[in-house]
Amino acid sequence: MFLSASTVTEEYQYDIEYSSSESREDLEPVVAVQLVQQHRDQTSGLVCLAFDIIFAPFKVMTYECRPYLSVVVSLLLGSTPPDRLLS
Length: 87
Fold this sequence. Notes:
mainly beta; 87 residues; two-stranded antiparallel sheet; 4 strands
């Protein structure tokens, strides 16, 4: 039996990872992240994501934070019986 992926679904989850609860309290209201574009190169499979990150503080701040991204991939698999592979 041969399995083939007929449908691939990718979901991207992204946010900001804060170094402390204090930095989260101060930065969460003034930082916004939005995925504005995604593109998959059909030849290489490479995915390019473009984000808008808006930082609009009301006071001077010095904190460390990092963006993070996770990908959830779902495959819809189909099967081909062995006798159909040879024909």
